Amino acid sequence: MKATAVACANQGLIKYWGKTDEALRVPSNPSISVCLAALTTRTTVEFSDRLEHDELTLDHRSSTDPRVFQHLDRIRELARSSQRARVVSENGFPPGVGFASSASGFAALTVAGAAAAGLDLTPSALSRLARLGSGSASRSVPGGFAELLAEDDTRSIAVRLAGPDDLDFRTLAVGVAETEKKVPSSAGMRITTRTSPFFPARLEYLVPALERMRAALRARNPVEVARLAEVDTLNMHATMLTSDPPLVYWSGATLEVIRAVLDARASGIAVYFSVDAGENVFVNGRASDVAAARERLRAVRGVSSLVESAPGGPARLDPQPLF
Amino acid sequence: MKATAVACANQGLIKYWGKTDEALRVPSNPSISVCLAALTTRTTVEFSDRLEHDELTLDHRSSTDPRVFQHLDRIRELARSSQRARVVSENGFPPGVGFASSASGFAALTVAGAAAAGLDLTPSALSRLARLGSGSASRSVPGGFAELLAEDDTRSIAVRLAGPDDLDFRTLAVGVAETEKKVPSSAGMRITTRTSPFFPARLEYLVPALERMRAALRARNPVEVARLAEVDTLNMHATMLTSDPPLVYWSGATLEVIRAVLDARASGIAVYFSVDAGENVFVNGRASDVAAARERLRAVRGVSSLVESAPGGPARLDPQPLF
Q1: Residue A255 and residue B251: Cβ atoms within 8 Å?
Q2: Complex ipTM, two decimals?
Q3: Interface contact A238-B205, CB threshold 8 A
Q4: Is the separation of the CB atoms in B264 and B296 below 8 Å?
Q5: 3-state DSSP call for residue B243?
Q6: What confidence tens digit (pLDDT) does each residue in A46-68 have?
Q7: How far apart are CA A4 and CA A194, in angstroms?
Q8: B188: distance to nearest CA of chain A, Å?
Q9: Nearest CB to B241; choose among A234, A251, A302
Q10: Domains of chain B listed by start with CATH number
């Protein structure tokens, strides 16, 4: 009744911003992401009759995050169990920089929790279950380059479009954040879908954008994948900025990294930026181009961490428990 | 055959970004602006038989800006003259910070040039003529709060919506720019109108946005005017960012000023930002609120100048020549 799993964070390449069902986290549009091998979460879950309450330790600190306890309830319901759980989770992320750990965290919690509860779920069922905890977590279940479909509850699952080694694709995760983001994603999505005059045009744009990204992955074209992710970043942030109230997730350092990427490109290095709902920047391209841009990015004022990452694999059970 | 004029720069409140006729500078949408009394251009024009070539001195330096010579040709055509001109122009702007001087410059050139050529033009004809030199210059002709209509060539003129003293409205021009903007406005507009998936939605949004701004001016409501200008800034920059190639006019310092404005607002100071096609930021509101925010904005890293300005008057002839 104890299991451990490791899952990677992922970066939205065609991003997900908006839900058609908030409770079930059914997204407004399909999204495509790449898992990041260098940013992982390890989680051990144990269900036991000896526990009176659920217990959660996150990065060596006791936590009472209600989203985790709700997720344990989902697992218990599937397993028809009433046992309480002990959960210990650790993020292998640069500390204090604010890279989002909810995708890797809920993917690892789902895989470890299901195994600890004795459930034998299909990959699709695991991906759906992870989505109920955090939308983007569903894409960390299959790993590699994955698409989260936007259908109904049971069919909104992530499927793999390409394996982690199928493309010469690298990501530099550039940490600049000094603060927690002020508007959590769920609240932000609600504001944007209801108030941005550009949200309907984003949904229209996404139909050909998704098809282009799938085609670029089929063609194993890392530069085109990186380029389309930059286009989508700007499209999504444009809907955030035009929300009421405006959602300004970028900081000055974010903009300076963006400009450094544009400058690198103007000098012939084929790198492209991508920014999720926060201040940090991902810089994508072929391994050789990302390496060529690295020192320029390190020199940007406000950059506090640089982590280079290859595409990562699926969420997986692991023999090494955290307790 | 010699005349001098002074004109104010202006800040777009509902901005103009896109033309339906590039040669005649007929805008895609009506725009509304406020003139800035503290940012002016003074220009002296003399037509003379003794000159063999047009001569232009701009801020004490000889210049060969072809747009100025083309504008002199327009004036000569109206006056049926073939005399060459001497033009001396000086900007009373903070030096090297990159506030746009084309609006005040072409408004002053138009008013001084027409008078020097002996033309007796109506205010509408002056506004149209200024528009042919620089679209936004047409709004500096009537001064105060003005709307540039978007009709055909002869009817796309600026009309005054409110006088400079009708509202308790102040602007802090926050200089942060270190460099000339990389994509000139005319080229940028062409890229956006042709490639942004949000440009049609911007044109749709503008219909009620313009009506709201006119209503706020009629109601003499400075806070609503400032708020609507911020909404429009984000809307316009969203179409720039989603252009192909992306038009990123902001720098890190721009973003930090934007965040400082949002923070000021969160602490109860009713100030709002506005950004034209460049890095500098205008901060708008009632005089008392702008004064209350001033020290916070001065403290932002990258701010190199602060100029507080009341609304300005019309472009006018002035007795004091520059030569």
Answers
A1: yes
A2: 0.91
A3: no
A4: yes
A5: coil
A6: 999 999 999 999 999 999 999 99
A7: 40
A8: 16
A9: A234
A10: 2-165 (3.30.230.10), 170-309 (3.30.70.890)
